[in-house]
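Backbone-to-sequence.
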C-alpha cells in the first residue's frame, strides 16, 4: 500500500534571533539565508515528490501573498493555505490543519513541520519520514529526533525509553521530553548517549491528533472546531473565523499534547539539521573557510578568525579587520555586531528597540505586496521618497488618501494611471501628480516589471492612510488589508 504524507508547513513567527535580516514584517522563513531560495521554499521542495501530497500552509494575514508568490516561484501548488486571525502557537495551528484534513480523510497522515529549518539531505529526510509512517499510522505520535553533535543548551531534548537505540533506522519508544538544559546537564545527557535533540517535527494521523485534543486539551478543541467550521474562503485562502479563534489559548503542541501522551515514539535522524536559531548557527551552516570565516558578497575579512561578515546590500561594503568570534550583519537600515557567544541575546536587542519604538525593530524599508514591492528611500517630517516595483499585469487598489499627495516618476516600463475619471499611460522619464483626496490607481500593462519613484508630501505619511474602493486582491481596508 502506498502511503501518502500530507505536509503541514507552519509559517508564522517573527524570527527575532536573526535580526536584522529577519523581522516581524518579513521573518526568516521567507529570507534567503543559506542559499538561492528561501527556507520556506526549501521546506516545500523537501516535502514534495513521490509519497507526498501538496503542502498545506498555515500562516498569518500579512504573509499570505508572500506564501503564494514563493510557492509559485518553485512551481508548487498548495493543497490549502489557512489564515490564522492571530498567532496562537503550534497547538491550535496543528489542530486546525488536522480538522481540515479529517473532513476529507480522518486517517490522513500529517507531517507537521516548521518552515524555517535547514535540512541539507532532503532524500535522507524523506526516507526517515517513510520509515516512521507505519508507527504513525498505527496511532502513535512520532517526533523526529536529531542526533546531537554538541552539548547544545538552545534545544529541547528527547530521552529514549530503556532499550532504545539513538542510531536506529526505525522509530524508538520515547520516554519523555526535556526542556532546554543548562550547560552541565546538556553535557551529562550527551555523554549518556540516550538523548536526541527535539526538532519540533511530528508525524501522526489527523484522527490521532483530534482524539488527543478531545482527551487532553478539550478547552482548545472546541474553539478551534468553531474557527474551522465558520472559516470563510478568500480568493485561494481559507480564513479561520476570528470569533472562536479569540478563545484559543496560546500554547505549543509539545505542552498541550505531546508531553501528556503515552503513545510517543521518536525517529532518529542523523543526516544534518539546524533550526537556524541564531547567527552562530548561520555561521556554522554556511561552511566557514580555513580561517573559520564566513563572508557574503560585499563583505571582506582581513586577518579575522571564526567570524561572520554579512552585508545584505550592494550599497554597503562590510569590512572586518583583526576580528575573532564576531558576528557582523548589515542591512540598508541596521547593523548588528555581537560576540558569537552572545548570539542568543539578539532578541534582547529587538526588545530594546521595540521599547524605544524604533521602526527597525519590526519593519523593513522594503515592503512586499501582492502586486510587487516598495522601498522607502528617504523620509522627512512632511515628505517620503519610495521606489515602487509593480509586477507585469499587476495593479494596485483603486484608492485615495486623506493626508498626502503623490508625485510619480516612471523610470522603467510603462504605468497605466487612473486619477479620478482620467486614465493615461505614463512612460519612462514621464511623471504625473496625484492631488490629495484624488481617487487613483497604478497598473503595469506591460510584460516586464515597472519601476517608478514616488514622492509623497503631506501632514501624515503612514501606510494606514488609505481608502480602498476596488482591489483585485480583496484586501479590504488598512495598511495591508
Amino acid at each position: 500500500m502506498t502511503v501518502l504524507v500530507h505536509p503541514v508547513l507552519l509559517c508564522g513567527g517573527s524570527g527575532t534571533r536573526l535580526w536584522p535580516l529577519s523581522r516581524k514584517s518579513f521573518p526568516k522563513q521567507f529570507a534567503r539565508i543559506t542559499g538561492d531560495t528561501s527556507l520556506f521554499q526549501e521546506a516545500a521542495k523537501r516535502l514534495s515528490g513521490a509519497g507526498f501530497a501538496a503542502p498545506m500552509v498555515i500562516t498569518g494575514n500579512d504573509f499570505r501573498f508572500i506564501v503564494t508568490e514563493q510557492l509559485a516561484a518553485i512551481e508548487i501548488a498548495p493543497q490549502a493555505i489557512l489564515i490564522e486571525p492571530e498567532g496562537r502557537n503550534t497547538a491550535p495551528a496543528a489542530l486546525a490543519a488536522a480538522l481540515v484534513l479529517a473532513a476529507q480523510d480522518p486517517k490522513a497522515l500529517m507531517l507537521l513541520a516548521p518552515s524555517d529549518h535547514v535540512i541539507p539531505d532532503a532524500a535522507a529526510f524523506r526516507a526517515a519520514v517513510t520509515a516512521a509512517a507505519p508507527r504513525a499510522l498505527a496511532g502513535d505520535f512520532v517526533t523526529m529526533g536529531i542526533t546531537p553533535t554538541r552539548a547544545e543548551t538552545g534545544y529541547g531534548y528527547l530521552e529514549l525509553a530503556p532499550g532504545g537505540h539513538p542510531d536506529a533506522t526505525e522509530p524508538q519508544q520515547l520516554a519523555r521530553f526535556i526542556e532546554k538544559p543548562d550547560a552541565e546537564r546538556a553535557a551529562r545527557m550527551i555523554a549518556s548517549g540516550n538523548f536526541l535533540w527535539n526538532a519540533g517535527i511530528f508525524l501522526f494521523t489527523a484522527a490521532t491528533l483530534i482524539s488527543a485534543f478531545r482527551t487532553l486539551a478539550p478547552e482548545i478543541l472546541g474553539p478551534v472546531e468553531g474557527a474551522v467550521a465558520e472559516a470563510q474562503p478568500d480568493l485561494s485562502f481559507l480564513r479561520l473565523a476570528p470569533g472562536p479563534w479569540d478563545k484559543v489559548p496560546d500554547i505549543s503542541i509539545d505542552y498541550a499534547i505531546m508531553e501528556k501522551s503515552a503513545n510517543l515514539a521518536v525517529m532518529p535522524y542523523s543526516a544534518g539539521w539546524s533550526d537556524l536559531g541564531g547567527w552562530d548557527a548561520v555561521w556554522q551552516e554556511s561552511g566557514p573557510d580555513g580561517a573559520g570565516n564566513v563572508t557574503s558578497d560585499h563583505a571582506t575579512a582581513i586577518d579575522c578568525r571564526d567570524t561572520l561578515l554579512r552585508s545584505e546590500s550592494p550599497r554597503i561594503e562590510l569590512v572586518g579587520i583583526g576580528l575573532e568570534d564576531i558576528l557582523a550583519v548589515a542591512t540598508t537600515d541596521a547593523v548588528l555586531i555581537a560576540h558569537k557567544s552572545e548570539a542568543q541575546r539578539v532578541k534582547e536587542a529587538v526588545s530594546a528597540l521595540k521599547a524605544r519604538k524604533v521602526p527597525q525593530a519590526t519593519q523593513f524599508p522594503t515592503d512586499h505586496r501582492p502586486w510587487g514591492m516598495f522601498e522607502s528611500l528617504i523620509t522627512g517630517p512632511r515628505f517620503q521618497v519610495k521606489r515602487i516595483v509593480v509586477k507585469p499585469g499587476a495593479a494596485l487598489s483603486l484608492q485615495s488618501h486623506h493626508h498626502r499627495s503623490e508625485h510619480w516618476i516612471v523610470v522603467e516600463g510603462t504605468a497605466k494611471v487612473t486619477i479620478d475619471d482620467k486614465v493615461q499611460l505614463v512612460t519612462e522619464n514621464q511623471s504625473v501628480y496625484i492631488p490629495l483626496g484624488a481617487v487613483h490607481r497604478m497598473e503595469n500593462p506591460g510584460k516586464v516589471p515597472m519601476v517608478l519613484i514616488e514622492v509623497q508630501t503631506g501632514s501624515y505619511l503612514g501606510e494606514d492612510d488609505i481608502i480602498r474602493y476596488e482591489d483585485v486582491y480583496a484586501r479590504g481596508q488598512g495598511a495591508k488589508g
